Amino acid sequence: MAAVTITEVEDPASGRSFEEKIAFHAIEFPAAHGSAVMKFLSATTLTLKDMGYGHLKRMKKAETAGRLLALVAPDASVLDAVIAALPPMEELVTSQVLVHKFAPSTKDEFARGNADWPMVFHPNAEVATTVLDDADEAQMQSMVARLLDIGTPATVANGCGQQSCFVVNPASGLVVASAADWTPSTVANPLMQHAAMQALEVVSTQDLAKSVADSYLCTNYDVYMAVEPCVMCSMALVHSRVRRVIYVTKNPRSGALGSCHFLHTQRSLNHRYRVFHATITAP
Ligand SMILES: [Zn+2]
């Protein structure tokens, strides 16, 4: 029997560390002006989210009692424009504040970051970094073997290629949905018939039939794919909140989970899943 080796797909370029900080220009002013300043900043600058810092709150209490500190922007020219347009305010002081550049991805990072500057945390973005236990790995190996047993051609192409997909409930070890797209990838190949899209459709139909209340389709489910999925399918898997994706054949033409992109490591997404590559060694 062929041996299946499971390895996690991590972004080698993701050298960015939560410890990295960025200097923001900030203004400090009497707390009585808090809501007026918030309104003014909203009207005259981009939101922190639009600047790429949606994990930071705009304002916090200053060290001096009765005063507030608000982030303006990393760019000094934005601060100058804000100061020039701000209605005259007594005791306005400008300063620079070092804040965490990237969103926290664990509760621990959130707790530490929040102590420096108030933060927003998406628990769904928390990615476990624990190693796979033996039972997990054994389940992955046997599911991969089952997936390959169904005889998909598993060719690489633009899009997802010809392939098959299982949605698995790892708690029960059952395949919840399966789908295959064996259509040769041509311009005539309908976009929505990629195997992952079809499998999600099956889960959705089952949920409707059972009146399942969870608005996310695949919470805690794992998805097995013969070929590394394309960007469309990888995003659909984000939206359906899958827990892990395991694929066999890498797709250097359009794979979004390690070959062309590392979509699963994007910190800006409010849900991330772990990705594993299964390598098959002939007996
Ligand atoms: Zn696809």
UniProtKB/TrEMBL annotation:
Keyword annotations of the record: tRNA processing
Entry's Gene Ontology molecular function annotations: metal ion binding; tRNA-specific adenosine-34 deaminase activity
InterPro entries for this protein: CMP_dCMP_dom, Cytidine_deaminase-like
Keyword tRNA processing in annotation: yes
Residues in CMP/dCMP-type deaminase domain copies: 134-276
Family assignment from sequence similarity: Belongs to the cytidine and deoxycytidylate deaminase family. ADAT3 subfamily.
Protein name from the UniProt record: Inactive tRNA-specific adenosine deaminase-like protein 3-like
Species this chain originates from: Achlya hypogyna
